[in-house]
Design a protein that fits this description.
By secondary structure, this protein is an alpha/beta fold. It has 15 helices and 18 strands. Strand 1, helix 1 and strand 2 form a beta-alpha-beta unit.
């Protein structure tokens, strides 16, 4: 089959593209700019075009798969319609693919990618080799976000945005946590939880943390097997994991619980967990500059900010933390504004990067970044590298500078570090 991927640089769709290439399909793709996953795609032999244009869709193409970021007016999608070529969203294709495997879906508001990475690291030490689709790059997969396994199991992230996880046929669900997010898709908290209830409905087994009110609320109508595990104290994991922070200890506990239900060798699995250094952009150390530890993180929810800062405090108990945070979406920032302010106060020094616009309405965009400075006068703004250099003057040798957010801040932080 000849398949073209529109928006192939996306971290989700790129894994599907690699899978199709591995199984023998003729695969091409396109995007508007290069992304961090391009090297892995090109190494697998996939031809990529930048930018997107109608000519990229050949008349003998059998299927066009597109990311949700690409609307129907995209020139390649328009060309596919004109040529009568079948189109399918990445999430719908992943759903169809999941029906061909025994699928383990990692779901939840926070921690999906790290939990997938921990599962991958643990399984690497066992003779259990599923196919993986992960929302970041992993050292375990040689810098890729995809691994073609040798058995009939699949592990993937279940994205709740716009109810995209509805297409997955999940046999086992690992539920990290559930807390209202994506207000542009779920205008009420109840609508968010109802999506999770519907998602888990057909699973045979759900693994979650005992006492997690959000998870238990999402599972209140679930009729399958529930395997609840108590939260573990840091002492249970500190000597084993390279990751720090209670949220990572919780993720590791869920991973080990899955290994138990799959009857894997738990000692070997633990050794694998101990080798895991983290997924790309999840509390990722870029290096040290002027004696200051520079980190990059994908977090874009108040809970994620608190968890990451807590993990860094644990790792560097005597250091001060400077945070440059990029709010992701005007709608999310407006909805959870007070929670964001409280979370951002947990850093010793905080600066705001311009809000990243994504799927925001004109009404949403009336929200101003300056609202943060009004709420907390100690906050500042960073828009240029010169601003970031000035902000860094607050820090001394041994301190931490964290660039955080899900939009442009990673590129900004990496260029600043370079």
């Amino acid at each position: 089959m000849k398949i073209h991927f529109v928006g192939i640089g996306g971290i989700g769709i790129s894994g599907i593209a690699q899978f199709c290439k591995e199984r023998g399909d003729e695969v091409t793709g396109s995007d508007i700019v290069e992304s961090e996953i391009f090297p892995a795609l090109q190494e697998s032999g996939i031809s990529i075009s930048v930018p997107q244009k109608a000519e990229n869709i050949s008349s003998d193409c059998d299927l066009v798969i597109y990311t949700e970021a690409v609307d129907e007016n995209n020139p390649e999608r328009v060309s596919a319609k004109e040529k009568g070529i079948r189109e399918m969203s990445y999430f719908r294709f992943l759903g169809e693919l999941s029906a061909e495997f025994h699928t383990i879906a990692v779901a939840g508001t926070h921690g999906k990618t790290t939990t997938c990475g921990l599962i991958a690291a643990g399984m690497k030490g066992n003779q259990f080799d599923p196919t993986f689709f992960v929302g970041s790059t992993l050292a375990e997969f040689n810098g890729s976000n995809f691994h073609l396994g040798t058995n009939d199991w699949m592990v993937c992230e279940a994205c709740e945005y716009r109810n995209n996880f509805q297409y997955l046929k999940s046999e086992i669900v690992v539920l990290t946590n559930v807390e209202w997010d994506h207000p542009d898709s779920y205008p009420t908290e109840e609508s968010y939880f109802e999506a999770f209830r519907s998602f888990v409905e057909d699973a045979k087994l759900v693994i979650y943390h005992r006492g997690d009110e959000g998870a238990e609320r999402a599972l209140e109508k679930f009729k399958g097997e529930k395997f609840s595990i108590p939260a573990q104290s840091p002492n249970s994991w500190e000597s084993l994991l390279q990751l720090t922070g209670q949220h990572n200890y919780d993720n590791a506990t869920l991973s080990l619980a899955l290994a138990h239900k799959l009857e894997l060798n738990l000692e070997q699995f633990k050794k694998g967990l101990g080798m895991f250094t983290g997924a790309g952009r999840r509390q990722e150390l870029l290096g040290t500059k002027d004696g200051i530890h520079i980190y990059d993180d994908y977090g874009h929810h108040p809970t994620e900010i608190r968890a990451t800062l807590s993990g860094l405090r644990e790792k560097y108990p005597d250091s001060r933390i400077g945070l440059i945070y990029e709010p992701h979406q005007f709608s999310r920032t407006k909805q959870f504004f007070e929670e964001f302010v409280e979370a951002l106060r947990l850093a010793d020094f905080t600066a705001l990067f311009p809000i990243y616009e994504a799927r925001d309405s004109e009404e949403d965009k009336q929200f101003r970044i300056e609202n943060f400075l009004t709420a907390e006068p100690s906050f500042s703004l960073v828009t240029t590298k010169a601003d970031a250099q000035e902000f860094q003057k607050n820090l001394r040798e041994g301190d931490v500078l964290l660039f955080m957010g899900a939009g442009k801040i990673s590129v900004f932080g990496r260029e600043f570090f370079a």
